[in-house]
Design goal:
Blueprint lengths: L4 H12 L4 H17 L10 H13 L5 H18 L20
Length: 103
């Protein structure tokens, strides 16, 4: 994991509240990728539009599945609502990944 004090504090926060190790790793991955996507800008200074831009990027540029996009969204919802104590992220304007049909 990164040596970022911010990411370490998120990790400690989640460990104290008994989140599973897999959830912690997954959320930290998406939070770190979100921060790097925005040029290492602290999440407190980013807006909801920046969150929407990131989630849309995942679908359009990285071609992720709907479940992957949902995990990334849940990580950001956790970051803003639980860890930073900000209002929840609006989910309406995000370009959703389409579900693939099973054969």
């Amino acid at each position: 994991m990164s040596s970022s004090p911010f990411l370490w504090s998120i990790r400690e926060y989640m460990l104290i509240r008994h989140y599973s190790i897999r959830t912690i790793k997954s959320y930290l991955y998406w939070i770190k990728y979100f921060i790097l996507f925005h040029g290492k800008t602290h999440p407190e200074s980013l807006s909801k539009k920046d969150v929407e831009r990131f989630l849309t990027h995942l679908v359009v540029e990285r071609n992720v599945s709907q479940s992957t996009q949902s995990v990334a969204l849940n990580a950001l919802v956790f970051l803003y609502s639980k860890f930073l104590g900000q209002p929840p992220i609006i989910r309406e304007y995000v370009w959703k990944a389409s579900r693939q049909r099973r054969c």
